[in-house]
Amino acid sequence: MGVPSIYAKLLQFEPTPQTDLKQICSQFRLMVSGSAPLPDTLFKGWEDRTGKRLLERERSGILLKVLRFELWVSGGQVFKEYWNNPTATRKELIDGWFKTGDIVRQAPDGRITILGRASADIIKSGGYKISALEIEREILDHPSVKDVAVLGVGDEVMGKVVGALIVLKDKQQSLTLEELRDFLKDRMAKYKLPRKMKVLDEVPRNIMGKVQKKLLKALFMEQEP
C-alpha cells in the first residue's frame, strides 16, 4: 500500500534493460492506494504501464455520517483516545464518533467525495469554500505540469485567493498564470481559478509523500519582484 505520490514516483522509474516494470509488478497480488485521492490520470497511467489496477480500500464495519460538510466515522477500528491529551479527545471524539477533519460532498446515492482537509485543503475565499484537491486534479491534466500544490493565499479583499505552485515536466519550458487560467477556465467556476502562481523545481513532501503546505505558504509571503 502507498499514497498516490509514491505510485507517481514509481512510474518515473526507468528500469534497466534486464528488467521491466510490468514484470516486476506481476509478482504483486494486490496494490492499494490510500491516505489521499487517487487522480484518474495516475490510475490509468499505472494500469497502462504495469497491467495492474490500483485499488482504493473499501470501508469495513465503519459507520459514516456527514455533519456541516465534515465526515464523522464510528466503529471498532476507530481509536479510543489521544495519548495524554484529554482536551483533544473531548474535542474530536464525541459519543463514539470521530470528527475526521475531512470536508466532503455527499451525492444523493450516498457516495462521498473528499474535498480536502479542513485545516489545509479548504480555501475560504469571498464566502466560497474551495477544494484545493479539486483544482490540483484539473491542473495535473495540463500537458506541461508534472506536479502541483494548491493553497490559500492571503488577500485583503477576498480573505484568501487560490495560489498554485507548479512543477513543470520540462525545466526548459515555461507556463504563465494567464496560460494556466486559460486552460482551466472551461473546467471550473471563475472564483476557483488561481490568482497567484509560482514555478518550483520540486514540491516539498514529508516521508509519507504528503505535500507540506505549511512550508509552501511562505513562498507567497515573499515580496514579489
From TrEMBL:
Pfam families listed in its UniProt record: AMP-binding_C
Coiled-coil stretches: none
Gene Ontology BP terms: fatty acid metabolic process
Gene3D superfamilies noted in UniProt: 3.30.300.30, Luciferase, Domain 3 (2.30.38.10), N-terminal domain of ligase-like (3.40.50.12780)
InterPro entries xref list: AMP-bd_C, AMP-bd_C_sf, ANL_N_sf
Domain AMP-binding enzyme C-terminal: 134-210
One GO MF term: medium-chain fatty acid-CoA ligase activity
Entry's family note: Belongs to the ATP-dependent AMP-binding enzyme family.
Protein name, per record: AMP-binding enzyme C-terminal domain-containing protein
Organism: Rhizophlyctis rosea
